[in-house]
Amino acid sequence: MALLDIHxxxxxxxxxxxPPVEAVTGELRRLVDDMFETMHAAKGIGLxxxxxxxxxxxxxxxxxxxxxxxxxxEIVDVSGKPAKAEEGCLSIxxxxxxVERAPLVTVRxxxxxxxxxxxxxxxxxxxxxxxxxxxxxxxxxxxxxSMLKKRSAIAAWEREKTKxxxxxxxxxxxxxxxxxxxxxxx
Length: 186
Ligand SMILES: [Zn+2]
Description:
This protein is α+β, with helices and mostly antiparallel strands and 186 residues long. The protein has one domain (6-180): Peptide deformylase (Peptide Deformylase). It has helices at 26-41, 123-136, 147-160, 174-185; strands at residues 6-7, 46-48, 58-63, 66-79, 83-87, 97-101, 104-110, 116-122, 168-169. The strands form 3 sheets. A 5-stranded antiparallel beta sheet has the order 2-3-4-7-8, with helices on both faces. Strand 7 (104-110) and strand 8 (116-122) form a beta hairpin. The two termini are 29 Å apart. It binds zinc ion (ZN). Zinc ion binds next to helix 2.
């Protein structure tokens, strides 16, 4: 497994749509493993392929005991009273904003074995799934903010973005961080 760089806002790949995957190959299963590892290292709950510079229609998510990797996700149904809650994004670090989303969602897609599956999600997982599917169509949570809030979020991001001159976040695995600390201790 490998940690992948995460593209941040400004990288064009985040605004491209993704074509559906034709078949779930071994190479794509490895990508799923790498995306989970990257998401964990970044302490996120969801990650979509464009965020790691890939144009496969794929996302991974993990909320409590629910672990999901879905290719070609399609929203079948959204229901319940939409509610606002704060969202962030691994591609826009340190920026947060309230987004209104439905609390229940049903999605269909292919699992890592290429089988057609249907997933019903609620609460935080539903929010996460909708956020990740947006990524697969080039949409970001900041697009939902009111003009005023979007303007201030983008202004804050312009300052934050200077930390990422290559428009990539390079993560350090927890075990390597521990080794670094050991070296420092020596
Ligand atoms: Zn995101």
